[in-house]
Amino acid sequence: xxxxxxxxxxxxxxxxxxxxxxxxxxxxxxxxxxxxxxxxxxxxxxxxxxxxxxxxxxxxxxxxxxxxxxxxxxxxxxxxxxxxxxxxxxxxxxxxxxxxxxxxxxxxxxxxxxxxxxxxxxxxxxxxxxxxxxxxxxxxxxxxxxxxxxxxxxxxxxxxxxxxxxxxxxxx
Length: 172
Ligand SMILES: [Zn+2]
Prior knowledge:
Layout: H1 2-6, H2 12-19, H3 27-50, E1 63-64, E2 67-68, E3 71-75, E4 90-94, H4 95-102, E5 106-108, E6 114-116, H5 125-130, H6 151-160
This protein binds zinc ion (ZN).
């Protein structure tokens, strides 16, 4: 219940591991998460369609057969903090970038440009390519005629979740 009230689902397993908890879902919790999953499913479709089934940060668009795989609808303002299930509060993100967004490594700044925290460190080519090189790039999507992330939700994330100062934009 604490997890549901205060944190997005993408962080639950990591938090439990950190404090050494194993979760056994109670029947009530299962009912709750069932209701929640249904809410999320509608938002998921709207957000993934708005972003044309591509990660808004890196453009990843993997499918297995016809089914998108590794793509998720992220809440910008966390659901636990009054974030609505709405396209204006959503981003289509790949699993890696969803996790990094919820951990405050990535954010969205003015002009819908990607923010990368100075606190993030990674020396491998993969860390550079998938994270550091994103600094200052414009978001991928949403398609014309759909609503981008509302400034109020973007600001909430920038102040409450994003970690420290953003890195300067990397030269292309
Ligand atoms: Zn991505």
